[in-house]
Amino acid sequence: SLWSENDQYNDLKIEFEAGIVLRLPVADYGFVADGEWHELVIPLSDLVDLGADLSTVTRPFVLSGGSVNVGARLVVDNLYLE
């Protein structure tokens, strides 16, 4: 789940490295920085369809994006890979 009220996070991506590096826009999974909590579910099948080799996962979850202003908040909760 992600929360932010700062629209600078609307271009946020989740990086997943498994043979290749995938950068998935969190907006594609329902996130918008509107001051509400958004539960994101990213099916592993989406990663495989994009070319990930799940037997070689080296970085399962990295947040990436452009720079944001000092004090901008992004809150992460209930993070797990199953």
Could you explain how this protein is built, in words?
The chain is mainly beta. It contains one helix and five strands. The chain has one helix at residues 44-49; strands at 2-3, 13-18, 21-25, 57-64, 75-76. The strands form two sheets. Strands 3-2-4 form a three-stranded antiparallel beta sheet, with no helix packed on it. Strands 1-5 form a two-stranded antiparallel ribbon. The mean pLDDT is 93.
Which terms would index this structure?
1 helix, single chain, 5 strands, mainly beta
**Number of DSSP helices?**
1
Strand numbers in spatial order across the main sheet: 3-2-4
**Major β-sheet annotation:** 3 strands, antiparallel
Shape: elongated
Distance between the termini: 15 Å
Query: Could you estimate the helical fraction of the residues in percent?
Result: under 10%
Sketch the topology as an H/E string, one letter per element: EEEHEE
How many DSSP-defined strands?
5
> What is the CA-atom radius of gyration, in angstroms?
13 Å
The quaternary state of the protein chains shown equals single chain
Q: Hey, roughly how much beta strand do the residues contain?
A: 25-35%
- Which whole number gives the mean pLDDT? 93
Low-pLDDT stretches are none
